[in-house]
């Protein structure tokens, strides 16, 4: 995983148990079937075959066999393969292959509740609220409304509208809630954006009614 616009680290997991000299190895990284991301040709970095979008964006740490991909973008997501060939009696022979899958993460803004209501609130009237969060990646799982009164909290699922920016590929999400204004007790309403198991959740500042 890598954060958007940060450096992604792609590991090759090559043990080099033979302690082979880098000058006898050709190391190249590719994405998919035809995009060459980085190439080290018998000890020298070679740029002739690189796909244009990776030029000046990669660095290889030969001690750790790790490729650094600078300014990671959402289009960089995907499967990468590291292939190592040994110069064996003149004809190169593949001695190692490994793959890694890159996921890009962009932080969503803290969810924010807005009142879709003008004028004075009266008991038993309907109150419309919306909750929005923007600029994140990947697409979130769900948005849940939390209604707390006294000792209980109700979790309400409502439809989540999701839009994706055509250029940045970042997502914006909004959900709406329509509830009755309480007559006696104070209620606190907040909304929770669930981003998936590994990324956790974001919660809004609660609104008291």
Automatic annotation (TrEMBL):
Its membrane topology: Single-pass type I membrane protein
Gene Ontology CC: external side of plasma membrane
Keyword Cell membrane: yes
Pfam families found in the cross-reference section: C2-set_2
Compartmental location: Cell membrane
Ig-like domain segment(s): 1-98
Primary site of residence: membrane
BP GO annotations: cell surface receptor signaling pathway; cellular response to lipopolysaccharide; immune response; negative regulation of T cell proliferation; positive regulation of T cell proliferation; T cell costimulation
InterPro entries for the chain: CD80_C2-set, Ig-like_dom, Ig-like_dom_sf, Ig-like_fold, T-cell_Activation_Regulation
Domain of life, per lineage: Eukaryota
Residues forming coiled coils: none
Keyword annotations: Cell membrane, Disulfide bond, Glycoprotein, Immunoglobulin domain, Membrane, Receptor, Signal, Transmembrane, Transmembrane helix
Signal peptide: none
Protein name (database record): CD86 protein
The species this protein was found in: Pelecanoides urinatrix
Gene name, Swiss-Prot/TrEMBL: Cd86
